Input
Amino acid sequence: MRPRQLPLINKTDYSARKWVEADCNRVATRWVFGWSKERVDKLACFCGPRGSGKTHLVNIFKELHGAFEFFPNDCKTAPSEILEKIRLPSNPISSSKVEGAYEAQNRSVLDIHEDSSIEATNKFAEEIEFRKKSIEQKNAKNAFFFDNIENFKEDWLFNMYNIIKSFNASAIFTITTQPREWRFNLKDLESRLKATTIINIFPPDDNLIKSIIIKQTQDYSLYIDRQTIEYLVQRIPRDFESIVYWIKKINEISIMLKEKISKKLINQTLKSPDFMDDSGSV
Output
């Protein structure tokens, strides 16, 4: 039985360097990494089940382009008061156009992300830091996101949608269901969201799960052979947060027992109380 997904104790690293692109998330990845104020489709709705990577992507949107994050608790504040704080510009600044290590060569963040060369890998982090500083200096507020819009008050979200659109700004809305399943009480909000660019993010497949595992083990300087990875893929929850958690757990037990990562060690980890499902079985 596959274990239940557990709340994480440590804050998940939602940085761009941790992101793994695959067929199931490619369209959304390119929308985020390749964003600029010149794009025509300024408003997008990312649809996908829990664990598909929506939250990770919108946090990359914040990291790379200075996007402003709204929370459900913000619904207690009138949109007019929020406007006074964020000062939406009529002609938003494009953080993707700042001069950087790769901009001189007409290289965008998306290009660098897709380039597998060692030079690009090293420059990627430098470019992100440069853009972050440029965003802070210019106080750009031309991009926004609302993660898990099911948790927002509909009338407030409707007003914020209209405000952002009127300022010709960009926004990402994330939701766990597909448009055909939407049942908003406020039909005007539903119709406006359906008018955005709808981008589906699908659950990770085995290849993506393997890539995430490999990336996480490399961060810990761990070596896991191919057969053990295949074994692990079939036994852990299939979402980014859970994979990060369990690789960390496996690493801790490996250090504690002074053993290399093996199927035996993985089984020991899986038998820990954290890995039990609600019925008490693994």
User: Anything to note?
Assistant: The beta strands are 43-47, 68-70, 143-146, 170-175, 197-200. The longest strand covers residues 170-175. DSSP finds eleven helices and five strands in the chain.
